[in-house]
Amino acid sequence: MGALDSLSEYISNYFHVSHKRRKRKVKQTVNLKVKMDCDGCVRKVKNAVSSMKGVETVELNRKIHKVTVSGYVEPKKVLKRVEKTGKKAEMWPYVPYNVVAYPYAVGVYDKKAPAGYVRKSEQSQPMPGAPDDVIMSLFSDENPNACTVM
C-alpha cells in the first residue's frame, strides 16, 4: 500500500459520504397501437420516441398501426410521449391468434385487429380443469389412447 492509498482511506473514514444508489431500469420491449395514416405521422412518432433517454430501437409498422420500442424505458412514459405528438395511442391490445383458446368468444374477436391477431381478454382463456377439454381429448386424433371406435 502506498502513501496515497492510506491517505485516501483515512480521509474516506473521516468524512463519511453516503451515495444514493439509483434504481436500475430494466430493459424491456413496449408495444403500442398508434393511429398513423401517412409517412409524416410515422416520422413524427419515430422522432418523438427515438429522442427519449434509454431507447435503443424503434420499429414502426404503419399497416397494422404498431410501434415497438425496446430499451431501458418505462411503458407509461413512452405512451405519454407518443400522445404528446397528437396521435391516438394505447398499449398493444392484441395477442397472436394461435395463443388464445377461444378466439371467437365475445369481446375477443375484433374486425379491426390485424391479420393473425385477436383482442386480449380473460374470456378467451380456458378455465383450468374444465370438463369440456377432458371430454374433447378423449376423441382426439392426437391422443394415442383415444376411442378406437371412430
UniProtKB/TrEMBL annotation:
Any Pfam family from its record, for instance, is: HMA
Q: Where are the transmembrane segments?
A: none
Q: What is its main location?
A: membrane
GO MF terms here are: metal ion binding
Specify the domain of life of the species encoding this protein: Eukaryota
Give the protein family.
Belongs to the HIPP family.
Checking PANTHER family in the record gives: COPPER TRANSPORT PROTEIN ATOX1-RELATED (PTHR22814), HEAVY METAL-ASSOCIATED ISOPRENYLATED PLANT PROTEIN 20 (PTHR22814:SF356)
Protein's name according to its UniProt entry: HMA domain-containing protein
Species this chain originates from: Eruca vesicaria subsp. sativa
